[in-house]
Amino acid sequence: MLMRYKAVRKFTRRLCRPLALEDYVVQSMADVSPTKWHLAHTSWFYERFILQEFVPGYEPVNEAYYFLFNSYYNGAGPQHCRPSRGLISRPTVEQVYDYRRSINRRMGELLLNADDATLDQIAPRLTLGLHHEQQHQELLLTDIKHVFSSSPLLPAYHAFDDEPAGNGPGDVDEPGWVGFDAGVYEVGVPADDESFHFDNETPRHKRYVAAFELADRPVTNGDYLAFIEDGGYRRAELWLSLGWSTLQADDWQMPLYWFRDGAQGGAWMQFTLAGAKPLVLDEPVCHVSYFEADAYARWAGARLPDEAEWELACRDQPMQGNFADSAAGVGRIHPLPLSVAIDGEVGRVRRCFGDVWEWTRSSYSAYPGYRPWPGTLGEYNGKFMCNQYVLRGGSCGSSQSHVRATYRNFFAPEARWQFTGLRLARDA
Amino acid sequence: MLMRYKAVRKFTRRLCRPLALEDYVVQSMADVSPTKWHLAHTSWFYERFILQEFVPGYEPVNEAYYFLFNSYYNGAGPQHCRPSRGLISRPTVEQVYDYRRSINRRMGELLLNADDATLDQIAPRLTLGLHHEQQHQELLLTDIKHVFSSSPLLPAYHAFDDEPAGNGPGDVDEPGWVGFDAGVYEVGVPADDESFHFDNETPRHKRYVAAFELADRPVTNGDYLAFIEDGGYRRAELWLSLGWSTLQADDWQMPLYWFRDGAQGGAWMQFTLAGAKPLVLDEPVCHVSYFEADAYARWAGARLPDEAEWELACRDQPMQGNFADSAAGVGRIHPLPLSVAIDGEVGRVRRCFGDVWEWTRSSYSAYPGYRPWPGTLGEYNGKFMCNQYVLRGGSCGSSQSHVRATYRNFFAPEARWQFTGLRLARDA
Amino acid sequence: MLMRYKAVRKFTRRLCRPLALEDYVVQSMADVSPTKWHLAHTSWFYERFILQEFVPGYEPVNEAYYFLFNSYYNGAGPQHCRPSRGLISRPTVEQVYDYRRSINRRMGELLLNADDATLDQIAPRLTLGLHHEQQHQELLLTDIKHVFSSSPLLPAYHAFDDEPAGNGPGDVDEPGWVGFDAGVYEVGVPADDESFHFDNETPRHKRYVAAFELADRPVTNGDYLAFIEDGGYRRAELWLSLGWSTLQADDWQMPLYWFRDGAQGGAWMQFTLAGAKPLVLDEPVCHVSYFEADAYARWAGARLPDEAEWELACRDQPMQGNFADSAAGVGRIHPLPLSVAIDGEVGRVRRCFGDVWEWTRSSYSAYPGYRPWPGTLGEYNGKFMCNQYVLRGGSCGSSQSHVRATYRNFFAPEARWQFTGLRLARDA
Amino acid sequence: MLMRYKAVRKFTRRLCRPLALEDYVVQSMADVSPTKWHLAHTSWFYERFILQEFVPGYEPVNEAYYFLFNSYYNGAGPQHCRPSRGLISRPTVEQVYDYRRSINRRMGELLLNADDATLDQIAPRLTLGLHHEQQHQELLLTDIKHVFSSSPLLPAYHAFDDEPAGNGPGDVDEPGWVGFDAGVYEVGVPADDESFHFDNETPRHKRYVAAFELADRPVTNGDYLAFIEDGGYRRAELWLSLGWSTLQADDWQMPLYWFRDGAQGGAWMQFTLAGAKPLVLDEPVCHVSYFEADAYARWAGARLPDEAEWELACRDQPMQGNFADSAAGVGRIHPLPLSVAIDGEVGRVRRCFGDVWEWTRSSYSAYPGYRPWPGTLGEYNGKFMCNQYVLRGGSCGSSQSHVRATYRNFFAPEARWQFTGLRLARDA
Questions:
Q1: What whole-number distance in Å separates Cα of residue D157 and Cα of residue D162?
Q2: Which of C227, C216, C215, C190 lies closest to C205, judged by CA?
């Protein structure tokens, strides 16, 4: 248990290695948190939910941190105003690392000295804490990408070892369609499954699913470019009403991080964690909102899958893909072109894990019979079940060990700064 | 067909009868439209979707009205900015009535002179236009109620003929629970049903529904008061995250239109279309948002039904209830106390039709296989399927002839100015 | 005294004669008040500051009106939120006229029955109330103009009897310059002047004024058009920093109410109280902000006068000009072309009274030794001496009997909906 | 000239010495700039206005810096959005110091190699650049104070060497009044004065000044506390209208940085650059807005001086006081208690230089005959002459060599984060 703890904690530090100290401080929009906040908050989680509960007479490392680094747990007390996380310079990065070290030391002591009965109580919370930290590892990456995109210098987080060339249109075949029969299916995590999962993935329950087909690959940049060139961002009839008003208010003309080099008619580029790069056509399209995903699907004569369809179609696929921990090996945190093979890639539904989170058309809501975890940790998932949409499959920013077929990620329909793409579905 | 047209149009005029001319002009918030806008827009609907399509060489009554009175149909051209509907004094109310009369005359001519083939084409659009007008009749009432609530004079729209007395707590028994078995059910409107329905009620489709129980009556003011007195508006753990931030931002402490007479501790009052009235405890609670309905249900150890559950439970109930057209007879557009009997009221699930729209926990989304109507009228429902929640059953502001068990009303989760209440459900 | 009261009150009613009832209700922006609010507030002023003070045991006409129709007198109690004046339909226009009639009756009784000593006390307040009402008469006109401009129908308040033709560029000669010597001058109202004036015009005090020249006529539409055509709205160097950011935020490209007929390159038009009209080049330019006046002056190689310069130059001019009460005779409330002669027009500084308020470069501030009126009426002028600029000379919307050479009008530098223009000055 | 350049540049670095790297990055409100921005912008000023003009074929250090570090000079090209200065992490602090070093090297080369004629041209711009940098030294201090105040840790910039004790009320005598005769005076900088001054201090011109009295010391914390305790922040009649609405909107109850220790009734504290400290009663009050200064003066039965009065009264005082460069010696950048003597402190008007900028009631406007500097540098002062008020005398954050009696500082009336206080005046 301690080894796993150390490994996850170490990976967080490893993700920070390319950063300059200044990069840790900035909050480029309300949804983004500064890196140093992520570092502190993930430590706070262990302190608040494990050390304080299991160490008798526990004294917090710093009383002020309880306020500063609580994200949204009302049950754990008041919180610093979220959009103001970037307005404070202190504690410094070094002080935050000190905080991490203090927590690590105390956690080490607790885990080494606790009796078995206590360890049994700690274990689920520790596992949760590690998955929580893995979620923030991904947020750290998407957030720093947004921070970097805010500077005209367009700095790079890391270099891509392996630089795929841009492809001309037509390099990727039309997607194939994989069919599924109608029927009553069970989805969600079975009650006897002891591997880690969030409360929102339970209980396993029956759904009637009509016959449907799912595309055998995600939508690519090349596909999406055809939508843009067909006037996709100028045709109100393709969009949800809220999407159209968002597009107009924020002047959307392409996915986040896309731009054209030079004036009218320049080459299509995208900002990546390796800086500005030419757009690669057979990469899964990324950084699109639910609104854009939905409009693209309508334009393509298809629709987004619902989350049950996605789960049914993908749960037998091998957990292979382009993940942050695998990616770290190949040196890029970015969707991989479809033309690049991934070891162990088999099955009918390519690339459903890793690369990009795939928007579903399912509003994020409680499964029938859902019960949030008891106590303050019940705030983890349940209270966000409103005005958000479910995404599935993990991304190039997720750790492989963090993703499951039943995993329900969720974001507001206008969110674009995550590694979010889509896969088409249609009625059979 | 013409008779039905005349009847609906006349009922709109009848609803306006208590209004002073000034009341027609005001828009008290962005969601509210001025009465004169409703009068004009409902006429525009016939002009734009029937007269312009079926009268060769049709000349609009006033070119500017095409812009001013188009609500949100991008396919029908640009629109006046919605929140600015109350910023214009012209056209005057008289000019808007002239417009209505012009449209009535032209519609009369068209319907009298058209051949049968054309009439067959017109019929579905006309029926739609009438249901559209009925929707706006209800909005007209909820909007004028909001306008009136904005004046410290708290003016009355009409007097209640029949004034029920306030009841002490405990006058209403705890709700009973009606059970339903698990199974695969069909919901939505069958393909062969020729009676009017919106596109969003189709297609009829199968759903697996787990066993559940539904309360046999709506939540009352007395029930809801107990929630308030138990600190319901101060306990974050009862609320969705978005609900809690809305409550804090807008300083919610009770349903819209409730207030206390005098300083701390005065009698509970509510603003109604008959002016300020003492709170009647056995009336269905009204003017609560989805957030409040959800928090109440959590506090009560229950939940909101989903829309399929509601439809299954209520579709066999008789279409009886307290509606705007029946209400007009009894002289009140306001929920009726449960202690007052309604003619023909039978069945296990009391008061599911009329009184208050009942929030379900279902996000408003497309039924499997849903296809919007073709053309511009496809904008009627489909493009709003995002960040809204479904309500069922009609209200004291709806016309009885407008409501069906399959009817899907929808509003944003923070909306409170509609006649919205709730009924509890729970897992069996 | 009563006759004067009746005359002013009657003129208010006369100004309302062209209005439809709906026009009384609308507030088209926060700075604008609905006509019915003006009608009620001017009556409230007599009620609150005369009737309540001088009638023993006075009972207000309607307690709620004390709140609704108090503008900004904190000493007189709390106030209805200013930007919400247009959100209420009640009291109706008829009820407001009833209120006016009640006040008139009570004022009549008071004035007829009071003894001489009381009348002496009432007199200055009554005179103030009448000048207050005259101020609101002008606001009523500028506000209804703004309301009308908000409707695409561009309705007319009245027809111009006498329609001057548009003139070609060059029809007006360059302005002549009238010189004034340096010296110590006295400005403001002398202590022994018993005619009406506001507190802010006192005390008379000495100013050292350097030698200067003042243009012998106001800037015209033709002059201003040359500024526009020379890129005036695109050249940052001509503008104050706040002006430039306002221009960009609100996309200013020309004075308020100017527009071009049809697409790029159409004829220059302006919206007037007689509806849309071709731009007349030798009219004094109107509806420009301080920012625009200042930028124009800089472009023209001149500057705005300061208020002492203006007063020195104009105080010996005859009080002749194009005013609302004279205008009513000639049938237009609009600046008059310079080519049209005004009876009695003499002197070196043409058209300094009437037509348009002339922006000075003087920030609105207290004269040395200034003391606000005692009590609540001290809030009338003094508390606004911040971030506003002084205008002089009255306009086509002012009554002739209301204007003096020492009169200090003031508005925020971004305000454009008043009848505001300018006259150039330069150092000698 | 080079020595002076080096001294000013070195003092900037010295001011940064107490900062952690993270402190350089944060922008805690739109008016505040990050320290690293100040460091870069002051360098940009030399690059843009000296190196680029006087070095043939000059290549900028980094093209992007021209955009990022231009503050508001439209004549020098477009600018990065001011409120976004804290949203970028790159260039890093080290890169900004590299930039400074590059500019220093290039400036050194230019100054060493230029011929005398060129040096004569450079000299005034260099002097301007140094005074510009001194202005930003003060802003750097006020901005970092605001940044530090945003963290609940309330970090200290430096320790005060010399810690004065809090004084009880009454320790400071009532101010004495120094009288001045009426007359025509000359103010501003004479044409033949070759020492440095800004364009806005010219031309010297005549003013008629009525007899007045000026307090012989600034208002203290003790004085101001009496105002608070007398309900100063709850009495609308003491405030300008804009001030009152600002007070209500931002919930002002005391000067910026004041707070009470613990709940209701705790000790009065203030946040300083040495962290949280007990309020010292005989210190000049600091961090009050124009609105607060004006309200205090009204409460005290006095008024603010106008800027001519201030200049007349103080121009013969010795340039002694508590400045940032002297303060650095005594170890505190904070107003000094009146009970502490300052070397060389003589004269009738104590402490008019240093400690706190003193609000005058003069709106910031052009002196008669004012001409902005030619070219882009004309944007330095002139374009801000709107909706700001003049402050005089320098502060504990200013360098002594930067301050003059004729110096006109200016800020918006709601600004509180500068070292701003007041001194009373009254009519004789």
A1: 15
A2: C190
- Chain C residues with beta carbon closer than 8 angstroms to that of B26: 25, 86-89
- Partners of residue D354 on adjacent β-strands: D322
Amino acid letter for position A130: L
ipTM attached to this prediction: 0.95
Q: In what order do the strands lie in the sheet with D409-411?
A: D409-411, D389-392, D357-363, D420-421
Closest CA–CA distance from residue A355 to any residue of chain D (Å): 27
* Residues C315 and C405 sit within 8 Å (Cβ to Cβ): yes
Residue with tokens 């304080």: A52
Query: How many alpha carbons fall within 13 Å on the CB side of residue D45?
Result: 22
pLDDT in tens, B250-269: 999 999 999 998 766 789 99
Distances (CA, A) of D265 to A230, C398, D104, D167, D181: 67, 54, 53, 18, 46
Please tell me which of the candidates A64, A88, A155 has its beta carbon nearest to residue D90.
A155
For residue A41, give the nearest of A136, A163, A159 by alpha carbon.
A136
Q: How confident is the model at residue D329 (pLDDT cuts 50, 70, 90)?
A: low
Omega prior to C91 cis, within 30 of 0: yes
> What is the rounded CA–CA span in Å between residue D387 and residue D385?
7
Question: Domain residue spans in chain C?
Answer: 2-149, 177-427
What gap in Å lies between CA C190 and CA C194, rounded to an integer? Answer: 9
Residue B46 φ then ψ, to 5°:
-65, -40
C26 contacts on B by Cβ (under 8 Å): 25, 86-89
The arrangement of secondary structure in B177-427, i.e. its CATH architecture, is Alpha-Beta Complex (3.90)
Q: A17 and chain D: CB distance < 8 Å anywhere?
A: no
Collect all residues with Cβ–Cβ distance below 8 Å to A108 and sequence separation of at least 6: A2
3-state secondary structure of C191: coil
Residue with token string 């854009």: A292
- Which among A38, A202, A49 has a CA at the least distance from the CA of A121? A49
Long-range contacts of D11-17 (CB under 8 A, 24+ apart): D11/D137, D11/D325, D11/D399, D12/D38, D12/D39, D12/D42, D12/D133, D12/D136, D12/D137, D12/D140, D14/D328, D15/D137, D15/D140, D15/D141, D15/D324, D16/D140
Nearest to D90 among A87, A92, A151 (CB): A151
* Maximum distance among all Cα pairs of chain B, rounded to whole angstroms: 68
Q: How confident is the model at residue C342 (pLDDT cuts 50, 70, 90)?
A: confident
Give the side-chain half-sphere CA count within 13 A for A282: 19
User: pLDDT tens across C84-140, in order?
Assistant: 999 999 999 999 999 999 999 999 999 999 999 999 999 999 999 999 999 999 999
D364, amino acid identity: Y
What whole-number percentage of chain A has pLDDT above 90? Answer: 91
Helix (H) or strand (E) run with residue A125 in it? helix A116-149
DSSP A348-366: SSTT-SBSSEEEEEEE--P
Strand partners, D186: D206
Residue D401 has pLDDT above 90, yes or no: yes
- Which residues are bridge partners to C363 per DSSP? C389
* CB within 8 Å of C408: residues ≥ 6 apart: C198, C200, C201, C307, C364, C390, C391, C392
Residue from the list A24, A36, A153 with its beta carbon closest to the beta carbon of D91: A153
User: Letter for the amino acid at A38?
Assistant: H
**SS3 sequence, C345-400?**
CCCCCCCCCECCEEEEEEECCCCCCCCCCCCHHHHCCHHHCCCCEEEECCCCCCCH
d(C-alpha A205, C-alpha A203), whole Å: 6
Least Cα distance to A136 among A352, A402, A412, A411 occurs for A402
Mean pLDDT of the region A241-264:
93
Q: State residue D170's pLDDT score.
A: 46
What does the pLDDT read at residue C173? 80
Does C67 touch chain B if contact means CB atoms closer than 8 Å?
A: yes
